[in-house]
Amino acid sequence: VLLIFSFLISKWLTAPIEFITSTLQKTSLEKSNQPINWRSNDEIGLMVNSYNSMLVKLQDSKVELERMQREQAWREIAQQVAHEIKNPLTPMKLTLQRMMRNMVIEKQSTDKTERAVASLLEQVELLNTIASSFSSFAKMPMAVVETIDLKILILQAVELYKEEANIKVNLPEKNLEAKADASILLSVFSNLILNAVQAKDDTRNLLLMIKVNELEAYWEILFEDN
Fold first, then answer.
1. 55 Cβ partners below 8 Å, 6+ apart?
2. CA distance 167 to 194
3. Helix locations, the chain, DSSP H
4. Of the candidates 213, 83, 207, 225, which has an alpha carbon nearest to the alpha carbon of residue 150?
5. What stretch of H or E contains 37?
6. What sign does the dihedral 204-208-168-88 (CA atoms) show?
7. Alpha-carbon span 149 to 179, nearest angstrom
8. Angle at 73 between CA 70 and CA 79, to 5 degrees
9. How far apart are CA 116 and CA 96, in angstroms?
10. Parallel, antiparallel, or unpaired for β 218-225 and 207-215?
11. Closest CA to 81 of 136, 2, 38, 118
């Protein structure tokens, strides 16, 4: 009888502790936490009041954390958009400067003018695509996969920066056909060349090597600078 009575008393005494322990284990930042209702002002009541106060602070921290995460996300989006917009702006500026210099020094041929204007139009179209994508919550443009010639895209990207660096291109003689989105890949190639130009050492000339290797069913495109 004493053993049974002792067991019941211990269960009665430890039940609140077990209940609080179980509640603490379920407390999380990812979901809503409910406060504990305890009417007595005993030691358990003090513990419950401390837990409920902690929940209030936890909720405040959760709101602040979500706000900081949103700010960080928008900051990263803004940086990415600024970077993507800067990519086409740089070659546009360089092309216009070359056109102005050629017009001042010597008469520019019609062929060079047409190539320069075509290059500018391509970059303007890329800017338009980026702006349209950002209006849809900064999403990158949806890829339009089609059969393209990588050689044409690489040479187009090189043409934009040929005045800024010594670029050597090692391409196979045959067409480099692949399934991809031409505008996105052109942006990638231009970005890689621009990164090399921006990272160059002022004490020496920039040398950039672009190589293409055939690996079974894939093309390996390497950008190597000094």
1. 27, 33, 35
2. 12
3. 2-26, 43-105, 110-135, 150-161, 182-198
4. 213
5. none
6. negative
7. 9
8. 140
9. 8
10. antiparallel
11. 136
Question: What does the buried/exposed string (b/e) look like for 104-136 if buried means 16 or more CB atoms within 10 Å of the residue's CB?
Answer: eeeebeeeeeeebeebbebbeebbebbeebbee
CA distances from 162 to 112, 115, 128, 159, 197 (A): 14, 13, 24, 5, 11
Strands 177-180 and 146-149: antiparallel
Is residue 127 within 8 Å of 88, Cβ to Cβ? yes
Q: How many CB atoms lie within 10 A of CB 169?
A: 14
| Tokens representing residue 159 in the block | 């043409």
Tell me the per-residue pLDDT of 96-154, one tens digit each, with 9 for 90 and over.
777 777 766 666 566 777 777 777 777 777 777 666 666 555 455 567 889 999 999 99
Contact 163, 224 (CB under 8 A): no
Packing angle of the helix pair 150-161, 182-198 (nearest 10 deg): 40
How far, in Å, CA of 226 to CA of 219, rounded? 23
pTM score above 0.70: no
Per-residue pLDDT of 50-80, as tens digits, reads 777 777 777 777 778 888 888 888 778 777 7
